[in-house]
Amino acid sequence: MARPSGGLTVGLDVGTTGVKGIAIGPDGAVAAVAEEGYPLSTPQVGWSEQDPEDWWQASRAVLARIVDTAGQDASIAGIGLSGQMHGLVALDASDRVIRPAILWNDQRTGAECAEIEERIGLERLIALTGNRALTGFTAPKLLWLRRHEPASYARIERVLLPKDYVRLRLTGEWAIDVADASGTLLLDVARRTWSADVLDALELPAAWLPPVLESPEVSGRTRACDEVADGIPVAAGAGDCAAAAIGVGIDRPGPLSITMGTSGVVFAALPTYEHDALARVHAFCHAVPGQWHAMGVMLSAAGSLQWLHDRLAPDVPFEQLVAEAEAWGPGTEGLLFAPYLAGERTPHADPSARGAFTGLELRHDRGALVRGVLEGVAFGLRDSLELVRALGVPVDRARASGGGARGLWLRIVASVLGIPIELTAVEEGSAYGAALLGGVAGGLFADVSDAVARCVAVRETVEPDPAWQAVYEDVYPRFGALYPALETVKEREP
């Protein structure tokens, strides 16, 4: 395919709090950025839902602002999609949404996860999918619907993930990419295709599932959307974690990607398929054709700081809170924070895990609590790093993205992990990675590696602080003792 000399590529990231869009040129320079938020519904404890129509209307608003900012005459060569993983969008025979989407951070499916592992066997499930059954994944949500909402379940004709619903509305096409499909627990990750064995064992129809494509493949073309022209190729795209990794240049084994968004992710590209025998880290397909990745996920990273802000200091800017935290040294004089506010995945596959502050004393103030949260999240990322290393992945540096990837927090994370952390010239994360995939689909780039080489550049490196690192090496074993200790005092359900 001949590459056009100009044009823009657009990335849309369908996130948990809103859609973010970015338009970039063939050199990676940002031409426009837009964002549109939407609500999150928590109708019961542990539930997390959204209306897919909100994603579509937000995507339309973002596209309109991008076109307006870039100029009506700007040529869009391709569009890439990224989004929150695992969310269940159930459609009927007319492609109408049957019920609100059940999201990645929903924790209602504990019984269904146990059922899946019993039906298939844990060892066989990990061998087939590279993962164990976790409450956030898509397959347990389907079993939950079958058990608790049989009328809704009986109407299902198609199943999609969040960004793929936006694709359906944007192009009329039904599709998914291998990276996002890896998080359904229905994909044979090693073979990059739906697992007939898992579907049969769970009695789920294969006809519900969309065709699986590689991330840079053209999945369809825009149509019937007033915000952009018809006929623009739309890449299959990727789940937000894989797209964020592409956005910071993780297109091959080498540096880690660390995403510090609502959740926290440690991501390592793998040259061949590998999985942890206990599935403590995820084994997923990468957004680069023919590659895989290992990924550790903590459910409350920047979400932990957001919680502290909203509950204790809603009128105080985050910058002020972080400045208060800087008054405290590493270790915060014995204060520890367990960041399990929404359950946990890595290394503790426990939806009922709960957070805690320990080691509080009279001297500790608001700044100490903030520093404790920053350090607790960093230790949670360290848990994932250790598991990635155990797979034989050499780690000597990382690249960071997400709202928490800045200032004091990055210095803490670099010192807890003991590796330099690089920041790229553009920090738009998943949306930027989606734009690179869209550029491949639209012919701006030859392939994903070409897109990364042309567009991703390191602008700054945050080195570990040797003095802090020494303190954190002593504190980390204490953090490791928190989860089992908290388990002994956790309230049990009747």
What do these coordinates show?
The chain has 494 residues and is of the alpha+beta class. 37% of the residues lie in helices and 20% in strands. The protein contains 17 helices and 24 strands. It has a seven-stranded mixed beta sheet. Helix 1 (52-70) packs across helix 6, helix 10 (302-312) packs antiparallel against helix 12 (366-390) and helix 13 packs across helix 16. The longest helix has 25 residues, at 366-390. It is globular and about 60 Å long. Mean pLDDT is 94; it is low at 1-5.
List keywords for this structure.
494 residues, alpha+beta, 5-stranded mixed sheet, 17 helices, globular, disordered N terminus
Largest sheet: 7 strands, mixed
- Runs with pLDDT <50, length 5+? 1-5
Q: How would you name the oligomeric state of the polypeptide chains in this document?
A: single chain
How confident overall, as mean pLDDT?
94
Summarize the structure.
The protein contains 17 helices and 24 strands. It is globular, with a radius of gyration of 22 Å.
Topology, pairings included?
Elements: E1 8-14, E2 18-24, E3 30-37, E4 49-50, H1 52-70, E5 76-83, E6 89-91, E7 101-102, H2 110-120, H3 122-129, H4 138-148, H5 150-154, E8 158-160, H6 162-171, E9 176-177, H7 178-181, E10 187-188, E11 193-194, H8 196-202, E12 212-213, E13 218-221, E14 233-235, E15 238-239, H9 240-247, E16 256-260, E17 264-270, E18 282-285, E19 292-298, H10 302-312, H11 318-325, E20 336-338, E21 356-358, H12 366-390, E22 398-401, H13 407-417, E23 421-424, H14 429-441, H15 448-455, E24 458-462, H16 466-480, H17 482-489
Parallel strand pairs: 1-5, 5-15, 9-12, 16-22, 22-23
Antiparallel strand pairs: 1-2, 2-3, 4-7, 6-8, 10-11, 13-14, 16-17, 17-19, 18-19, 20-21, 23-24
Helix pairs in contact: 1-6, 2-3, 2-4, 9-14, 10-12, 11-12, 12-13, 13-16, 14-15
